[in-house]
Amino acid sequence: MPHEHSRPSLLSAEGLTKRYGRRRRPALDGVDLAVPADRVVGLVGPNGAGKSTLLHLACGLTEPTSGGLRVLGRRPAADAAHLARVGFMAQDAPVYRSFTVAEHLRLGARLNPRWDMAFAERRVRESGLDPDQRAGGLSGGQRAQLALTIAAAKRPDLLIFDEPAAALDPLARQGFLQSLTSFVADLDAGAILSSHLLADVEKVCDHLVVLCDARVQVAGDVRDLLAAHRRLPAAEVPAGAELIDQGVARFAAPPPPGYAPVTLEELVLAYMTRAERRPVRAVQEVAR
User: Fold this and answer.
1) CA separation for the pair 47, 196 (Å, rounded)
2) E strand or H helix at 60
């Protein structure tokens, strides 16, 4: 694998803001973010946090209201060549119900200059899909596998997934995550996975972005974040630590012994809880 410095960051944002129509509260509000190359990113947060908006901006499906965003070192969908470097799979695993599996692959070959038909056909066989089966007759797990195969057969440098496994049963979700991990390794690509399922994020992601209230609350490599956070046994906050919420604190230096480590779920919930309480405090302060 090439050294990280030889590749541009997966995604970088500066002051990124997106408003829809006359909506007073933005979907994204002044987001600053830098995701290094060669990461599998877990993008988590509550409904309405701006996760899908961020992914749509990264794919070039919509334009920011203000601020800057670069994907793989360039403006999203800057040209056809850049567009071919990004594979996107939306939440509902979109496929054409009247098309057969084989027809999906032929369409992919016509639309994508970097299309790898041998890769696509091999993944169809390994997934147990019938090339002559119409997509409308596939199970949810099979449709997800087909949509994932189409996204990966573009041979992109970045795969983006918006809640791809939300509607799948546990067995289908496990198969999907295994395929996702395999594709990222085969393609030597980065990936961004938006998900409500923290167990899925923990299985496949090595970088975390927590998005709440239209802002990034915390971001970084999972290993570094877990190393910097500890659970406090009491309300007292030691020197060199910042209380996040729910007894979870972040230490500026390596935490001293005696503090229990946190799980990824505890870390995420602490930042989400803090973000939910901030607007309430702001309203109270204005009322005073």
Assistant:
1) 9
2) none
Q: Among candidates 76, 88, 85, 148, which has minimal Cα distance to 119?
A: 148
* Alpha-carbon gap, residue 285 to 288, rounded angstroms: 5
Strands (E), the chain: 11-18, 28-35, 40-44, 66-71, 86-89, 158-162, 190-194, 207-212, 215-221, 229-231, 241-245, 248-251, 260-261
The answer to whether position 217 is within a domain reads no
Q: What span, in angstroms and rounded, lies between the C-alpha atoms of 59 and 160?
A: 8
Shared-domain flag, residues 130 and 262: no
What's the structural domain count of the chain?
2
C-alpha 27, offset from chain centre: 16
**What gap in Å lies between CA 157 and CA 38, rounded to an integer?**
9
Question: Does 196 reside within a domain?
Answer: yes
Residue identified by tokens 């098309």 is 99
Dump pLDDT digits (tens) for 85-123. Answer: 999 988 777 799 999 999 999 999 999 989 999 999 999
Q: Are strands 66-71 and 215-221 parallel, antiparallel or unpaired?
A: unpaired
Helix 101-111 and helix 117-126, axial crossing angle in degrees, nearest 10: 160
37 contacts 9 by C-beta, under 8 angstroms = yes
Q: Residue 48 falls within a domain, yes or no?
A: yes
Whole-model pTM? 0.88
What residues make up the domain containing 154?
Answer: 4-212
Q: 125-138, pLDDT tens digit by residue?
A: 999 999 999 999 99
Q: Which of 32-36, 149-153, 164-168 has the lowest mean pLDDT?
A: 164-168
Phi-psi region of 21 (alpha: psi -120 to 50; beta: other; left: phi over 0): left
User: What is the CA angle 173-203-129, rounded to 5?
Assistant: 30
